[in-house]
Automatic annotation (TrEMBL):
Pfam family for this entry, one: ExsA_N
Tree of life domain: Bacteria
Native organism: Niastella vici
Gene Ontology molecular function terms on file: DNA-binding transcription factor activity; sequence-specific DNA binding
Protein name: AraC family transcriptional regulator
Keywords assigned: DNA-binding, Transcription, Transcription regulation
Entries under Gene3D superfamilies matching the protein: Homeodomain-like
InterPro entries xrefs: ExsA-like_N, Homeodomain-like_sf, HTH_AraC
Limits of the HTH araC/xylS-type domain: 171-269
Amino acid sequence: MEFETKYIAPEIKLSEYNGKLFKTEVMFEHHLLVWFISGETKIIQAHTTNVFTAGDIFLIPGNQLATVINYPKNGLPHKAVAMHLTPEKLKEYYSKYKAAVRARPLQKVYRFSKHPLLESCLASLIPYFDLGRNLPPDIANIKIEEAISILRSIDQSVDGLLANFEEPGKIDLSEFMERHFMFNMPLDKFSYLTGRSLATFRRDFKKIYNTTPQKWLTEKRLQLAHYQIAQKQRKPNDVYIETGFENLSHFSFAFKKHFGYPPNAIPGQ
């Protein structure tokens, strides 16, 4: 089996992938704490790209668009423990412990690589994944609370993120789309993250760009891909994933239709 996922609870999972490459476009609905056991992951966000390998521990803020590309490495599968820090669990935690920081949360990936306390907490989960119904009562809640406490002891600024329960408010649509157009997400995700209903999103988009979101997104992605190939000397096979296309054949077809030549035949190259 190429892909296997085991759960202790809906919030805690162990995933293992043995294929050549697995790519997905996601909106991290919840904050996600990840301990990377083996393989490699590239997480591409609006203006930053993070690469994680074995031993890395990181916290990804919720309500973030990202392209995630997972690879096996050094003959080992892509394998990681992931803990979803849901609003319900966080509200339960902060009802007992006062937040130290109430500042505006930093929308960044927090790195805690090879931190002994966090690694010990997450590594201790491994034996539980094979127990099935024989799990100790409430073990998931205990482990989630332990992980939050350790995160706060390492970096108190994380309270600004974890103790913030506001829904995304209405924001500048143009600025958001210019930063996130390369993410191949449903329009309802874009509308939610800009604080709009889908109907309002479409109406506001039309006022700004005088075209449909689908047409604008395709053209922006193709322009970015052209720049990456022509100016950065990158190969089409490396570019199509990072610019929001599902597969190389669809990318090549759309590229030739838009520019009049295939991506591997850009004039002057």
